[in-house]
Amino acid sequence: QVQLVESGGGLVQAGGSLRLSCDASGRFLGRYNLGWFRQAPGKERVFVAMLTRIGGSTYYADSVRGRFTISRDNIKNTLYLQMNSLKPEDTAVYFCAATARVGNYESDYEYDYWGQGTQVTVSS
Prior knowledge:
The protein has strands spanning 3-7, 10-13, 18-25, 33-39, 45-51, 58-60, 68-73, 78-83, 92-99, 113-114, 118-123. It is mainly β. The mean pLDDT is 96.
């Protein structure tokens, strides 16, 4: 199985940028469909972005489309989430996830492997 560790979170002003990393060990990330989710205080964990195993197609939540970019570095075995034009409502704990299954990529129950999360705080 694959182990995932996120990093890159922090405090940033509105309009700023951050790049989150999700380092994988144990298995090659290219074996999996990969996703980013986030959970704001007192709210459910929600889908942010997804990168398919086959074809490398990307999908985004409406709230982040055009501002966030998901990508993968096969050599480093690392998943990224580039976040630009950040807004206070982007404040949340961000999680990377992986699954070998094909299903509803927006649903967190489809993902078998999760990182511990990294905090992103956007100040106004």
